[in-house]
Amino acid sequence: MAVVQDRTHLDLRRYKIRVTPQRQAILQYLKSTDSHPTAEQVYEHVRTVFPGISLATVYNTLNLFVQLGLVRELPNGDRSSRFDANVSDHYHLICEGCGAIIDYHGPGLEHLEAKVTQDTGFQVVGRRLDFFGLCPACSA
Which is nearest to 95 in space by CA: 35, 136, 42? Predict the structure, then answer.
């Protein structure tokens, strides 16, 4: 019987890392949600499918995915880091009330990056811009 390889399997194979069902489940979960989960939330979700998975495995896998550029880590000050499988250029709206992180795909900042390089000689290789405030539910 032929095994159908889903996109997650192919994403991992491209990076020449060992493809395990646990790694596939972690990446698939991150790609299926826009909630920007913490490592603990990823662990809680994945262990419903793989009860024997350890929290350390989830942390190690997330760190590997961040190093490979498959996932973006969003450090959140005192709070736990959150993780985002959407590595396209976008901004985050962070609610200071409930902690929700919302993706925002707005105009680019290429003009600002060019100005930074022009003014300082600093070569921008990446960016992260977060807006802090209250989501509609918390501001009501």
Answer: 136
Q: How far is CA 127 from CA 18, 85, 137, in A?
A: 29, 16, 28
- Residues in Cβ contact with 61 at an 8 Å cutoff, skipping those fewer than 6 apart: 22, 23, 26
Residue ranges of domains in the chain, CATH in brackets:
1-87 (1.10.10.10), 88-140 (3.30.1490.190)
- Encode the chain (140 residues) as per-residue pLDDT tens digits: 333 345 555 567 787 888 899 999 999 999 999 999 999 999 999 999 999 999 999 999 999 999 999 999 998 766 679 999 998 888 899 999 998 999 998 887 778 888 889 999 999 887 788 899 999 999 98
pTM of the shown model: 0.81
